[in-house]
Design goal:
The protein is 52% helix and 11% strand. The protein is α/β, with parallel strands linked by helices and 631 residues long. The strands form three sheets. Strands 4-3-5-2-6-1-7-8-9 form a nine-stranded mixed beta sheet, sandwiched between helices. A two-stranded antiparallel ribbon has the order 10-11. A hairpin with a 3-residue loop joins strand 12 and strand 13 (495-496). The longest helix is centred in the middle third of the chain and has 40 residues, at 394-433. It is globular, with a radius of gyration of 28 Å.
Length: 631
């Protein structure tokens, strides 16, 4: 099934629906059913307008996304991809010694000869925050309970940008730091204010305002070698005049590095850090231009979706994301063969798929085995862990299999949408060619009673905000929590209080309505199924079911926005954050518990929960459905 055929079919159906809507002889209930089906067709058309996809790799830091992308797309150093080549030096997208990258990376195609790298700089205010945390990590006492956890890749980059020869503990290198501060500031260090002096010295040495070199171009060098060395320099902070990257965009020549035709670009997202909400990842998943590959380890395959905030993106009710998502198990060595009870690699895959399905079904994740793939970037490269011993044909076959599977997955999406459109087309024709009778009116009256009776069953637990937020706060690393406090609860990518509230809102909404949603669906089928041979009853049922789905997902999203918006409006600019900053290093003990207590007290005093409850998004789902069914 070709994409253009889907678009043509969408236009045909929409034309028929327009005729129904403009027909003054058509009953309002028929028009309502047609309108619900129209919105679904419009959504399918919007999705299928996308010609090429950004392939987005999502997964925890260090899982091997960059390695997988490099091998999959042929972004490898051929000099290392042979006997006695170094395994860690094969991928072009990895940093020195295979360390974690600083930020998200995008790969784009362009027509210019050569390679170009564009740096999207981190905002100066956020960069200064990172530098301060770097300085605090140096100065902290090794005996201090509340430690600043500055990631090694950040330490490496800041140290090189600032010309610091080491970033070890202050006490171990006090004289070296004192000399550094004197050279930078032209004065002796003030022992009582050494944090401020060190911070000022590092910022002065870096001179961030004048780091304006954001476009780097290859100049006649071997392209792959230049790309590899330049990326290492950027990630290590060794590229002169280059700012700290918030995102790196790599532009490759189409002829030299041609991507498969269905790919517009590749996104290597910033690694997930723990089980925290990530608004940037949520937006990537929602974008219809993106095809997402969620990377997971073999040992815990399926857990990333079953036990993290990502789960809330894939409820069973969600209809479209399943066509643009694959959960990829990244194998290292011979992990699949070593799976318990496996008789070989393929058997190991089957066992891991079954285990994942059990987890997803238990957690009501709306994906299936068709969403599963496994990839070993080094399959076919016999090695001793460091050096390549032999390369055989399995390496290219493994790579080609994955690329073909991705392409076929997209083709199967068009097949699935075509089947859905066929059903919708049949329903629309029934709405067009049949007249609403009294028997159909009675069915709607029955449905109205059923829906109205469900209002009393809505049991929204708004206090979930407190228990869930507390649970998250006390599980976060103290230094990450401190960094979030210093950013007034908005530490994007690490711990954002408002994004966490959004995830909590989804749990509250689904808990309050999930059973009602399925009850109404089943009662709809039962009531309209009384006339099993009546085409119009079937068409009206199809319209009702589309409306149930549409309203459920709409108010689910609205509830998320309400939670995030109200919490942010009430506490983002509150003086509570200054108070919470004082808890760090105060010696009061139970740092995370104290933050949770004080934050909860302030949220309660601001009556945040009462304001959220007044929006009544759970109840609105039922009320709007009732309005739709009104005769």
């Amino acid at each position: 099934m070709q994409r253009n055929e889907i678009l043509r079919k969408c236009d045909e159906i929409l034309s028929v629906i327009n005729g129904i809507n403009t027909d003054t002889n058509k009953h309002l209930l028929v028009k309502k059913a047609a309108e619900a089906l129209m919105k679904r067709v419009e959504r399918i058309k919007e999705i299928c307008k996308v010609e090429k996809y950004n392939i987005c790799f999502i997964g925890k830091a260090g899982i091997g996304k960059s390695t997988a992308i490099s091998h999959l797309l042929g972004l490898v150093d051929e000099e290392e991809l042979k006997e006695q080549g170094e395994i860690d030096k094969i991928p072009l997208l990895k940093t020195a010694s295979g360390k974690t990258t600083l930020c998200a990376t995008e790969i784009r195609m362009f027509d210019r000869v050569g390679v170009e790298i564009e740096i999207k700089p981190l905002e100066e205010e956020e960069f200064n925050n990172i530098v301060e945390e770097f300085c605090r990590s140096i100065l902290q006492d090794s005996k201090t309970e509340e430690k600043i956890n500055c990631p090694s890749e950040v330490k490496r980059a800041i140290s090189n940008m600032a010309g610091l020869k080491c970033s070890k503990n202050w006490d171990e290198n006090k004289e070296e730091y004192e000399v550094y501060i004197k050279e930078a500031l032209g004065k002796e260090m003030n022992e009582e204010d050494k944090l401020q002096d060190l911070l000022e010295a590092v910022l002065k040495k870096i001179d961030y305002k004048n780091r304006k070199n954001i476009i780097l171009k290859s100049e006649g060098e071997t392209l792959k070698r230049w790309l590899k060395e330049t990326l290492v320099a950027i990630n290590d902070g060794k590229s002169s005049d280059v700012p700290y990257p918030d995102k790196i965009i790599i532009k490759l020549n189409r002829k030299e590095f041609g991507l498969p035709l269905y790919m517009n670009g590749i996104f290597d997202t910033r690694g997930l850090d723990g089980e925290v909400a990530r608004e940037d990842i949520s937006q990537i998943i929602d974008d219809i231009n993106n095809f997402c590959i969620i990377c997971d380890e073999i040992a815990t395959y399926g857990n990333r979706l079953a036990s993290s905030p990502l789960k809330e993106k894939y409820p069973i009710q969600e209809r479209d994301l399943k066509y643009r998502t694959i959960v990829m198990g990244l194998e290292r060595g011979y992990e699949l063969e070593a799976v318990n009870d496996a008789s070989g690699r393929e058997s190991g895959k089957d066992i891991k798929k079954d285990e994942a399905i059990d987890k997803w079904n238990s957690e009501k994740v709306g994906l299936d085995k068709i969403n599963m793939l496994f990839y070993n970037p080094l399959f076919g490269l016999k090695n001793d862990g460091k050096l390549v011993i032999e390369k055989n044909g399995d390496y290219e076959e493994e790579r080609e299999n994955i690329l073909n599977n991705l392409e076929n997955f997209i083709k199967n999406m068009y097949i699935a949408y075509n089947e859905e459109l066929q059903n919708i087309s049949a329903s629309i024709n029934s709405l067009k060619n049949n007249k609403l009778e009294e028997i159909h009116m009675q069915l709607f009256k029955e449905m109205i009673v059923e829906v109205d009776n469900r209002k009393a069953q809505v049991n929204s637990n708004y206090d979930l905000l407190f228990s869930e937020l507390r649970s998250k706060i006390v599980s976060i690393h103290p230094s990450t929590l401190n960094a979030s406090v210093r950013r007034r609860g908005s530490y994007d990518g690490s711990f954002n209080v408002y994004d966490e509230a959004g995830i909590i809102s989804i749990k509250e909404y689904d808990s309050a309505l999930d059973h009602i949603y399925y009850y109404i669906l089943e009662r709809s089928k039962s009531i309209f199924g009384k006339n099993a041979d009546d085409d119009l009853s079937k068409a009206l049922l199809e319209g009702i079911m589309q409306k149930i789905y549409e309203l459920y997902m709409y108010y689910r999203k609205q509830n998320e926005e309400v939670y995030k918006g109200i919490l942010q409006d009430n506490i983002k600019n509150d003086d509570i954050w200054e108070k919470l900053e004082g808890y760090w290093g105060s010696g009061r003990g139970n740092y995370r518990g104290s933050i949770a207590d004080s934050l909860e007290d302030r949220i309660r005093s601001k009556k945040v929960v009462e304001k959220i409850a007044s929006e009544e998004n759970t109840l609105k789902f039922i009320e709007k459905l009732g309005e739709f069914l009104e005769i």
